[in-house]
Amino acid sequence: MTFDEVLATGRLRECLATGTGKGVKVGILDSGVASHLPQLGGRVLSNHEVVEDRHQGTRVVPLDQGVDVIEHGTACAYIIHRHAPDAELHSVRVIGQSHGATTGKLLAALEFAVEQDWQILNLSLGTEASYERIARLADRAYYRGQIWIAAKDNKRNKVGYPAGLASVVGVDMDFFQDPASFRYHLQRETEVDACGVYVEAPTSDGGWQQFTGTSFACPQITGLAARLREHFPDLTPFQFKTALAALRGNL
């Protein structure tokens, strides 16, 4: 059955209920992921890092094992894994110990990620700079069918990029009892509110911590996207937004 047929018959919830993200590759551009953690089920299949070198420039290099010194990317990976336990996770470390990254690193990571065969990108990060270059990359991803899901800036009156781009699913946070719940807003720059308050996730040392922020609402929606993409391998960003609008968070 095609996506349009499922949409017409109101069976999207059935697809989400049976989806596990099997066969779906998710790129996580963040602070790295502690890929050894058993809570991630061995589903982090590759790790990379963006490095800046005055001789060779900014580039992406592979890592033997994922490392996360600020716990940010690991929490995001766990949230995605909880929603879509069979999805493949691929980490690109952009954010450093200062909880920030240069725009050059972000652009290099996005360029690298667009060229991979990852169907979905989780982008719990953003910037106010380089709008045109980020927009061009987002457009390239859109036409390749790669779904970008990005966290809004935590400041109330700021959105940031790529979350504020029309081709991207922008995510804000709120409190929901059910972490799978969300709200979808038509004609709003940040279309989705998802659970980003007191979200429990593991830390690199095997402990647990509660996280709050738009960064942790974003992977809730990424997990839903992975479950739908399993059923519809050619699901486009536009179709995913249509699915979110049709569901309106009523899962």
What percentage of residues falls in helices of 4 or more residues?
A: 25-40%
CATH homologous superfamily grouping: Peptidase S8/S53 domain
Distance between the termini: 20 Å
Structure class: alpha/beta
Q: Which residues form runs of ≥5 with pLDDT under 50?
A: none
Order of helices and strands: HHEEEHEHEHEEEEEEHH
CATH topology category name: Rossmann fold
Outline type: globular
Q: Using the 3D structure, state the CATH architecture.
A: 3-Layer(aba) Sandwich
- Indicate the radius of gyration in whole angstroms: 17 Å
Throw out a few tags for this protein:
7 helices, Rossmann fold, two-stranded antiparallel sheet, nine-stranded mixed β-sheet, 251 residues, single chain, 11 strands, alpha/beta
What's a concise summary of this model?
Helix content is 32%, strand content 24%. By secondary structure, it is α/β, with parallel strands linked by helices.
Topology:
Elements (H helix, E strand, L loop, with lengths): L2 H6 L3 H7 L6 E6 L13 E10 L3 E7 L8 H12 L4 E6 L9 H13 L4 E4 L7 H14 L2 E5 L17 E6 L7 E3 L7 E4 L3 E4 L5 E4 L2 H18 L5 H11 L4
Parallel strand pairs: 1-4, 1-5, 2-4, 5-6, 6-7, 7-9
Antiparallel strand pairs: 2-3, 8-9, 10-11
Helix pairs in contact: 2-6, 3-6, 4-5
Descriptive report:
The protein is α/β, with parallel strands linked by helices and 251 residues long. It has one domain (3-247): 3-Layer(aba) Sandwich (Rossmann fold). It contains 7 helices and 11 strands. The strands form 2 sheets. The protein has a 9-stranded mixed sheet, with helices on both faces. Helix 5 links the parallel strand 5 (120-123) and strand 6 (147-151).
